[in-house]
């Protein structure tokens, strides 16, 4: 499924002269379309993540580095501003890296179900385990946007279609494995951090969706927990 750009998924560049509204939205002040030279609210954090000198002040080089990151991951407007969505994306990446090969360290995903696909909305991670043994992953995923969240709880895969076409969204959903109404694992070609998210499905890269297709079957358990940042 595809996401729809909305308030949860873009860093708004506000041109209004009403300063309190701009601050409330965490929006970038109006700048030339090429690059935003304003110091953002997450400047130091973003500089550190990108390996830039950490001084908390926007420079031309900072702007170019942030802009390249935004362009790669679909963050708009792509102007190099160190705003909330850019930092949220980076902090999610850090949480994913910290998970390493032990994503279920806190045992939030059941270990008494045998083979199960786990989805952690908070870290935007998924993996397959058999009991407590990790079988595949963890891998980054792209879940439902604000207002169309991926539903939490215990599920089961009930229908699979390797070349599914969504008649609702008119989009291809390769390696689709449905586990809750119209919500499914399936592959997409966009970045897993592309905001604001899907319409409820758990998006994956083609490589990971193909692996899930090979490892899972109808009747296998799925457990979704947590809360996606920004929802």
UniProtKB/TrEMBL annotation:
Superkingdom to which the source organism belongs: Bacteria
Keyword Metal-binding among UniProt keywords: no
Domain L,D-TPase catalytic: 114-225
Record flagged with keyword Transmembrane helix: no
Annotated PROSITE patterns: LD_TPASE
Active site per the UniProt annotation: 186, 201
InterPro entries, A to Z: LD-transpeptidase, LD_TPept_cat_dom, Peptidoglycan-bd-like, PGBD-like_sf, PGBDSf, Transpep_catalytic_dom
Pathway field: Cell wall biogenesis; peptidoglycan biosynthesis
Keywords: Cell shape, Cell wall biogenesis/degradation, Peptidoglycan synthesis, Signal, Transferase
CDD domains documented for this protein: YkuD_like
Signal peptide segment: 1-32
Protein's name according to its UniProt entry: L,D-transpeptidase family protein
